[in-house]
Specification:
The chain is 30% helix and 0% strand. The protein is an all-alpha fold. Among the domains are: 56 residues, no CATH class; 36 residues, no CATH class; 34 residues, no CATH class.
Length: 225
């Protein structure tokens, strides 16, 4: 005989089964209408080409309407909206020698090239007048083997510096130059000959003065105690 607990449990099971719309003769599965995308909110499985619930389908249709591309007008390298044909959309090169970029890109490039002094027929290079030191400020490259180097300001500055320099290729500073030899002026300090003096004029005068105050000389040496 069933207990009171078993009797209550059986009643609850029967009530639950009554609320369940699926049963042995109408099981929920991949073929059940409530599992298929047949136009309601329940089913999402593919049905006659559709996938998703009613909201999914409507949202997809709305999105596709806003999309200018379709199976018959797919976006790709040959689509007009992908080619640089004068609008803002396409940027891909049109034919082998065609332009590249959107309308703004093309106009900006034309504007830049219009301001550029150099072009295919007037290319900038080592032989271009604006690259050669020919007396203007632009060119700095040496003109021929013995030519000048630098712009006009560079050349004038170098000439000014050289003018202030008393030495030159024909009067190079060295050990035999008068300004390097101790010949009585302040400039030269090198010994003149084997027995000549050493130092500038001040050096010689100071040495003579110091020697004059020294009571010992080569003829009268300091006694060795």
């Amino acid at each position: 005989m069933a207990t009171q607990l078993e009797i209550i449990a059986e009643k609850e099971r029967i009530a639950s089964l009554a609320r369940n719309e699926y049963n042995h003769t109408d099981l929920y599965g991949s073929t059940n209408p409530n599992a298929l995308a047949n136009g309601d909110e329940k089913g999402k499985g593919e049905y006659e080409g559709q996938v998703g619930s009613l909201t999914d389908i409507n949202t997809r249709k709305e999105s596709l309407v806003r999309n200018p591309y379709t199976e018959n007008n797919a976006y790709g390298s040959t689509n007009p909206n992908a080619i640089s044909d004068g609008d803002e959309k396409g940027k891909g090169q049109l034919d082998n020698m065609g332009s590249v970029g959107g309308l703004t890109d093309i106009n900006t490039r034309k504007d830049n090239m219009g301001r550029n002094f150099y072009n295919d027929l007037n290319g900038y290079g080592s032989t271009h007048p604006n690259a050669v030191s020919d007396g203007d400020e632009k060119g700095k490259g040496q003109l021929e083997d013995m030519g000048l180097v630098g712009g006009r300001t560079d050349i004038n500055t170098r000439k000014d510096n050289l003018h202030r320099n008393i030495y030159s290729p024909d009067n190079g500073y060295g050990m035999t130059n008068p300004n390097a030899i101790s010949d009585g002026d302040e400039r030269g300090k090198g010994q003149l000959g084997e027995m000549g003096s050493v130092g500038g004029k001040t050096d010689i005068s100071t040495r003579i003065d110091n020697t004059g105050r020294n009571k010992f000389d080569i003829n009268k040496t300091y006694p060795d105690f």
